[in-house]
Design a protein that fits this description.
Blueprint (H helix, E strand, L loop, with lengths): L9 H12 L27 E8 L3 H6 L1 H7 L3 E8 L1 H13 L7 E5 L3 H6 L12 H6 L2 H4 L3 E2 L2 E2 L2 E2 L6 E5 H6 L9 H13 L15 H13 L16 H15 L18 H4 L5 E4 L2 H6 L11 E4 L11 E2 L3 E5 L6 H12 L1 H11 L12 H6 L3 H8 L2 E2 L7 H16 L5 H18 L1
Parallel strand pairs: 1-2, 1-3, 10-12
Antiparallel strand pairs: 3-11, 4-5, 6-11, 7-8, 7-9
Helix pairs in contact: 10-11, 10-18, 18-19
Length: 439
Amino acid sequence: MKSKTKRGLGLVLVLCLAMTLLAGCGSSGQTASAPAANDSAPAASGDVVTIRVMSSDDFAGFRTSVIKEFEDANPGIKIDFQSVGYDALHQKEVTALAAGSDTYDIVDVDCIWTPEYVTNGYIVCVDDRLTDEMKTGIAPVAMDTLAYEGKIYGLPMFNDLFFMFYNKDILGKAGLDAPPATWDEFTAACNKMQEDGLIDYGSAWGWAQAEGLICYYMTFLKGYGGSLVDDNHNPTVNTPENVAALQYMVDSLYDSKISAPASVTSDDRMAIDLFSQGKTPFVINWSFAWSVFNDPEQSAVADKVGVMLVPGTNGIKSATCAGSMGLSITSTCQHKDEAWKFIEFLASKEIQKRQAIEAGALPIWEELYSDPELIEQHPALKEMLEQVGYAYNRPSLVWYNEFSDALQVEVQNALTQSKTPQQALDDAQAKALEIQKKY
């Protein structure tokens, strides 16, 4: 679910390419519409088509492990699979896509990039490829990952969001019968464990200046009743609720001191290390962390991990940030039918079920959440499902990346005490309004 980064001279090339190549499912306001999903250059009889995939490292190990199975079932298709860390993914994809390059046939798209990719004509609409079963059976929150202005531009690969994991042993030693339900209770519980000498810090976070920081901030501000934009997509960054959420984050570092100081320089991947070592009782992270925590070769807390609702406050039971990703066919892909076969394969119920069991990812198909084997093999599934009902997406904006970059800087300014939370968010609001005007 990620430092999640951003465009230039290639726009001219994109416009020229779009005018000649693109047709079909587009969104209003685009400079050109995306190509029809069934546009595909057929391979000559006996030829082998190579589909080049650019993926994030989220569950990339599992995806790689099933490629041979796909190729055996589709002898005319070979998969050239590449993956990079999430922080590098957006820049790598956009560099190729904005230049009109045919480097990639399939790209991994974060939910926050969909408006940008669609508007610039980088990915194609797949509405005419979707089956009725896909339309009704895939969880809406997952399908929304690649939805924009009423059209769908790919299929989700997992149903991800931030979960709060806790160490059952440490909470047991502290005499806590249940995990904390509010952020005030969270602070009190961590302070008690510190006083008892059980821990140095309650948690480590991925609060480095990256997209992951916004995911954490979204989790807090939603738990405080805040929002980054209003219903008309106008920035609302410096509301009292948002300031209170950021103040809590700052206080956790310098007042209550329940957050590890290294949090301000760690990303959301690094944040899991202390928890894996059994040194913190709590951590918030993506679903992939479940398999890491329960792998004895990577973790000292295997079989000691529970999943709880992320705390809320002021009457809000829980709130967390969603962060699903999906695969899309690029507008420059010459073999769209073959590319779709691979996307459809990875999104299939069988593969989604295996990915959930083997890699800890939440599946995209709603019916799998009641699958007896999956429930048996994935003991945290019930708790994770409950959290899905309290998940929120970041704003769907064409200008989101610039907005996020500006917000990351100012939230970091508050976390490093260069500015007060109020000053930082006032400055972020002003920058957001400037960015909005450009679009």
